[in-house]
Design a protein that fits this description.
mainly alpha
């Protein structure tokens, strides 16, 4: 993949390519709506997401409850809006941690090389041999169900892809003339990696991050569905699907509404990631 630099001409070409992608704006619009709802949830949500009212239990969508109510009489729309906070925060923070730690491991492994590189890559191959959900399930089960442990579990499962992405260009870049010139001038290895190698691969890592954030949100929903996510009564999309699964035939809105929310969020992130990738490297575009 062609690595974007920080020159004004490259930045201008990037934004022109991104703006010309009409599908990209659909992803931006969907993600903006979801983020807006999460940030302003206290003002947008029509009801308290934790307030129970048995008299209103399992009511279908109506003018009072636009997406109906659950088995405890809680407003589904309000819980859906507040649940977006958990999904977005967990997805963003977990991917940010995985991006920083994984990229650092990949750069260090590719730069040092030799036995260290082989050992690190072997460990990453072991991690990649496990399905993401299965590895996250094992880690979350060992750590216990909590908001912080959920982020840690997802971050660990997503580190290996970032390390792989960062390692490959590091091996190529460390042999370039500007790295050799830096060594001749007495630059330390940390300076060469942090100020000369990292900026030349940062755009590629960010693109991967936008795509893997969708995977992190799916993993969070899956772990919440099986009871290893954020403990109730905090609303989460995966937890809402689990609660509505038993009443799927009679009260379809309980499981369908959070499922659609996950679908739209993942779709928006995937569209945005594809658009960023195409803008950075026009050769990958599908005409």
């Amino acid at each position: 993949m062609t690595i974007a630099t920080s020159s004004p001409r490259r930045q201008s070409a990037f934004w022109m390519a991104f703006r010309s992608n009409r599908l990209a704006w659909l992803g931006v619009a969907l993600l903006a709506i979801i983020v807006f709802s999460a940030v302003f949830a206290p003002w947008i949500a029509p009801h308290d997401p934790l307030q129970q009212n048995i008299l209103h239990r399992l009511q279908p969508p109506s003018s009072e409850f636009l997406l109906g109510t659950d088995t405890y009489g809680r407003d589904v729309l309000s819980r859906l809006i507040y649940g977006s906070r958990v999904s977005l925060v967990v997805g963003f923070v977990a991917i940010l941690i995985a991006m920083v730690v994984g990229s650092a491991i990949g750069i260090l492994s590719g730069f040092i090389g030799g036995v260290f590189d082989r050992v690190v890559m072997s460990l990453l191959d072991v991690m990649l041999s496990f399905p993401t959900l299965l590895l996250g399930l094992m880690i979350a089960a060992m750590l216990g169900a909590s908001f912080e442990n959920l982020i840690i579990a997802i971050a660990i499962t997503e580190m290996a892809p970032f390390a792989r992405v960062a390692r490959a260009p590091t091996i190529s870049l460390k042999q370039r003339d500007f790295i050799e010139a830096g060594r001749a001038m007495g630059f330390s290895d940390s300076r060469l990696m942090g100020r000369h190698i990292l900026p030349n691969m940062l755009s590629e890592v960010v693109v991967v991050g936008s795509m893997w954030m969708a995977s992190a949100i799916r993993t969070e929903a899956s772990l919440s569905f099986i009871g290893l996510g954020v403990p109730p009564p905090t609303p989460t999309w995966g937890g809402m699907i689990r609660e509505g699964f038993e009443n799927i035939l009679d009260s379809w809105w309980l499981a369908v509404c959070p499922s659609v929310a996950i679908l739209l969020t993942v779709l928006a992130l995937n569209i945005l990631g594809d658009a960023l990738r195409d803008a950075i490297d026009p050769k990958t575009r599908v005409e």
